[in-house]
Design goal:
By secondary structure, the chain is α/β, with parallel strands linked by helices. The protein is built from eleven helices and twelve strands. Strands 2-1-3-4-5-11 form a six-stranded parallel beta sheet, with helices on both faces. The chain has a six-stranded mixed beta sheet with strand order 7-6-8-9-10-12, with helices on both faces.
Length: 316
């Protein structure tokens, strides 16, 4: 009898111990799950991380994310949309709470955005919009690029005395450039009838290609008066070609971004002016839009940040 009672008691103890351990494991799993849900993770794929503009934009993202307790997974396509699509797919596999993109190609990125949409992950764009049809972007945050294009046209018109032939060093794969070129051309067409755009060729937004493109333009149009570089790498590449051709001062250049190297060239009188953007503010406002959406409120579809103009006069 005592032996049977001992066996029964031992079995009861084992059962109670098992239940207790099970409850403890459930509590631990619940705590871990709760911690996972509480941590907001945002996947970010930029156009590039090498350009000062995107470095400042990333700083704005990081500062705002840190203030809100968010974790950022920051990558960059480095001008390769196929690479950027792979990065978005990785974000989807990792089940991030939101995705922020600065597309390498505003149209081709559409398939990746659609995949995120289908996975139920909200997508936001910063600086460069997505132009693909049939996809959903919650909020696009960028400079007012059309207005910036108008500023660039007015500056170049002033530099060349409101008459002459000008060229555009383009990068038509990205929406922000499309917008600023549209603003530039609209301003010239409306207010500067004696200025003619004789060339609009792509420099792909990088110095070496902008240099070669400008060389070709200068050979085709030896009487060129001005160049609009759609970003500072384009403007600085154009400057190198103008200097090589011995036409510094004869061909005026206006850029876009006002990065430190371009500001130095403007102060030295080598570039006439630059449109100023506010990339840090763009990054901060993008995180604010993500926060608004994830809180259940309605985020605005578009947020535009005003541009300014940097010239030798303003530098002084």
């Amino acid at each position: 009898m005592r032996q049977r009672l001992f066996v029964i008691t031992s079995c009861l103890c084992l059962v109670l111990l098992s239940i207790s351990c099970g409850k403890k494991n459930d509590q631990n799993n619940t705590a871990q799950l709760g911690a996972g849900i509480a941590k907001i993770t945002i996947g970010v794929s930029l156009l590039t991380r090498t350009h000062p503009f995107y470095q400042d934009l990333e700083k704005g993202l990081q500062d705002a994310a840190k203030a809100n307790g968010y974790e950022l997974l920051v990558t960059a396509g480095e001008f390769d949309v196929a690479k950027q699509k792979d990065q978005v797919q990785d974000f989807i596999v990792r089940k991030v709470n939101a995705i922020i993109l600065a597309p390498c190609d505003s149209r081709s990125i559409g398939t990746a955005v659609k995949a995120a949409n289908d996975a139920g992950i909200p997508v936001f764009t910063a600086d460069i919009a997505c132009l693909a049809e049939g996809v959903k972007i919650v909020t696009h945050v960028a400079s007012d690029n059309v207005a910036g294009g108008h500023l660039a046209a007015m500056a170049l018109a002033k530099a060349i005395g409101q008459a002459g032939k000008v060229a555009i060093i383009d990068h038509p794969e990205v929406e922000s450039v499309i917008a600023r070129v549209r603003g530039f051309e609209d301003e010239l067409a409306a207010n500067y009838k004696n200025i003619t755009v004789v060339a609009k060729l792509s420099g792909h937004g990088v110095k070496d290609q902008a240099f070669r493109t400008t060389e070709d333009i200068l050979q085709s149009h030896p009487d060129l008066k001005g160049i609009f570089g759609i970003n500072d790498d384009s403007a600085l590449g154009a400057l190198a070609a103008v200097e090589k051709a011995g036409k510094l001062g004869q061909v005026k250049i206006v850029g876009f971004d006002a990065v430190p190297e371009a500001r130095e060239a403007i102060t030295a009188g080598k570039i006439y002016a630059d449109v100023i953007q506010k990339p840090t503010e763009i990054g901060q406002k993008t995180i604010e839009a993500v926060k608004t959406y994830l809180s259940g409120a309605s985020a605005p579809p578009t947020i535009l940040v005003p541009c300014g103009l940097f010239s030798k006069d303003t530098a002084q």
